[in-house]
Amino acid sequence: MGVMRGYLCDRCPLAFEIGGYHFWSLDGQCEQAVCRSCGTMHRLTEQHGTCQVAALAGPVRSLPLVTKSNGFGGEYQDYEWPFTEADWQPVGQHPGGIKALGQLACSRCGAAGQMQSLEWPPHPDGFWVSFRDVCPLCGWPMPFLYDSTVN
User: Fold this and answer.
1) 120 within 8 A of 98, measured Cβ to Cβ
2) Predicted TM-score (pTM) of this structure
3) Neighbour tally for 22: CB within 10 Å
4) What is the three-state SS of 95-133?
C-alpha cells in the first residue's frame, strides 16, 4: 500500500512521478525519487534486505495528454508516461536501502544527496511530507497532476 504522485512543470517542463509503496506478498517496498540536479527519476526496490536501484536514461520532458476509451463507448483524457517498464535500467545495489535515499548519487549526473521523494528530505518539523509542489529544477510552482493509491 502506498501513494504515487505525478507532476508536470508548466515552465521547464520536467515531468516525474514520486512516492512509494509496500508489496506485502513479497516482503518488500519500492520508492521512486527524482534528482533535484538533473530531473532523472530513480526507483529503489528493497526486498529481503537488498536494495536494487533502477533509473531512466534522463529526465522526462513531456507528459502527453491522450484520449483513451473507457470501455463503454465513451472517451476520457489521461496523461501517458512516454516510457515503459523496460526503460528502467538497472543501476546496482544501494547500501543502506530506501532509508538511505539521501545518500544515493544520481546515475545520470552523479550529484549526491539530491534525491527528492514525497518524504525525503525530511521536513524540519518531522510531521509533514517534505515535497512542497515546487519544481526541483527551476523552482516554478508545480501542482501535482494525480495522486494514486497503490495497493
Assistant:
1) no
2) 0.87
3) 15
4) CCCHHHHHHCECCCCCCECCEECCCCCCCCCCCCCCCCC
Evaluate the CA torsion angle 110, 118, 130, 135 in order and state its sign. positive
Residue 86's SS3 state is: helix
Contact 45, 51 (CB under 8 A): yes
Q: Are 73 and 64 in contact (CB under 8 A)?
A: no
Given a cut of 50, the residues of the chain with pLDDT beneath it are none
In angstroms, the CA 17 to CA 7 distance is: 6
Locus of grid cell 495528454: 65
What are the angstrom distances between the C-alpha of 37 and each of 6, 29, 42, 67, 148? 18, 25, 13, 33, 26
- Closest CA relative to residue 7, chosen from 55, 44, 62: 62
Under DSSP, the state recorded for 50 is E
Angle among Cα 81, 19, 112 to the nearest 5 degrees reads 95
Using the structure block, give the residue that is written with the C-alpha cell 532523472.
40
